[in-house]
Specification:
15 helices; alpha/beta
Length: 409
């Protein structure tokens, strides 16, 4: 079996926690488990320091940075390090948006196929768009393939309007083993149900675009409990809002969930999961995969992002307009008052998860694409014949270390 050298490029990497970083880590470790030679290049979390070491079979090269400007690490040595690592790779995979990586690619000689994952548009730094869009346009036209996790990324992606033919759909995945119940999580789950009864669950960072203000307001008309698990800059303000509405007896802040058994128990014991985000900064919502894997229905919002199409509206999830507390409250009450329907939707969600969103399916989808592009490149350069092209099967035994060590911020 060919052992391709794959260079994954992101802004940061484990132990830094973020949506893009989690996907990059799951993918890199899954590829390494499948026999690929994987290197990750990213910026160091702390200033002035660097690091190169192996993490779960993946070589990780962290480049020193001088600071972060508009979510972009300022890393002066990045272009030189990129050029050296790119020369050794059979394929380069860049996770975007990442302006420095995109510029470095455009300035360096192209030695091998380059693919990207288009995670989202630039949402919060809109003042940069007049400068960034010309760079992004050149970059997207120069890469060989654009991976998107949902069809809505193509439909709404500002940079993809004329590049649909270059896009390949590979949904994000989750290792189902990371959500499996066991004796400990079952005990914790029974304690949660005994204390809180039927409850709704939000799990994620407490930041403004998550729309928790509207979820708290919606709970004024809901007579059941809500557990908010996670931490962030908004926590103190949100706790004050709960107190203002006198909802302390129904809304419970759990903070960051570090314990994997508690993490599993929260999902398996809830009646539903809620993702009330209000901007396309929420571009997918891995919480939805976790909910579907645990056979739970999801209430989410109709954003111009991948969020609404992760599930199947009316069958696995309920969708309400963003920033609408009244309709969000009605959706919550509907699932609380119809537990049989909630269970039915959860079961259909689990089936959709197994059909589309397992980690094995995500890894095999990338291996298929990588194999196609690498062999096509080698044929064009006369390094092999078309008859030598192959698709590498992924061994169906993934157990991603990122899921084993999962920590929810």
């Amino acid at each position: 079996m060919a052992k391709f050298k794959i260079l994954q490029i992101g802004k940061f990497y484990f132990p830094y926690r973020g949506g893009i970083e989690s996907v990059t880590q799951s993918l890199s470790e899954g590829l390494a488990n499948a026999g690929m030679d994987v290197t990750v290049m990213c910026s160091m979390e702390k200033r002035w320091s660097s690091m190169t070491r192996e993490i779960e079979g993946v070589k990780v090269v962290k480049v020193p940075q001088l600071g972060v400007i508009a979510s972009q690490p300022f890393t002066p040595t990045w272009p030189d390090v990129y050029k050296d690592l790119a020369q050794e790779a059979d394929l380069i995979h860049i996770h975007c948006p990442n302006p420095l990586a995109e510029l470095s690619f455009l300035l360096a000689p192209k030695h091998c196929p380059v693919v990207i994952t288009y995670h989202s548009d630039v949402i919060r730094q809109k003042w940069l768009l007049p400068f960034y869009y010309p760079l992004q346009k050149m970059f997207l036209r120069a890469v060989d393939r654009i991976i998107v996790p949902t069809v809505n990324h193509i439909r709404y992606g500002a940079g993809l309007k004329d590049l649909q033919d270059k896009c390949t759909l590979i949904p994000f995945g989750l290792d189902p083993a990371s959500m499996e119940k066991n004796i400990v999580s079952n005990v914790i789950g029974k304690e949660l149900q005994s204390k809180y009864g039927p409850y709704a669950l939000f799990l994620g960072r407490l930041v403004s675009y998550k729309g928790l203000d509207f979820l708290i307001e919606a709970m004024r008309d809901v007579k059941h409990n809500l557990i908010i698990a996670g931490d962030g800059l908004e926590r103190s303000r949100l706790e004050a809002l709960v107190a203002q509405h006198q909802l302390q007896d129904r809304i419970h802040f759990f903070g960051s969930v570090e314990n994997q058994e508690l993490f599993r128990a929260l999902y398996h014991s809830c009646q539903m999961v809620v993702l009330p985000s209000v901007t396309p900064a929420e571009n997918f919502g891995m919480i939805q995969l976790e909910a579907m894997c645990a056979s739970k229905p999801v209430i989410t919002t109709d954003l111009k992002s991948g969020v609404p199409v992760v599930g199947e509206p009316g069958r696995t999830n309920l969708i309400v307009p963003p920033r609408n507390s009244e309709l969000l409250g009605e959706a919550l009450n509907y699932l609380f008052n119809n537990p049989i329907e909630a269970k039915r939707m959860g079961a259909m969600g689990r089936q959709r998860f197994e059909n589309m969103y397992t980690m094995d399916k995500m890894i095999q989808g990338h291996i298929n694409l990588y194999s196609e592009l690498i062999h096509q490149s080698r044929v064009e350069r006369g390094l092999e014949t078309r008859s030598e092209a192959q698709v590498i099967p992924f061994p169906q035994q993934s157990s991603s270390a990122v899921d084993k060590k999962k920590k929810v911020a």
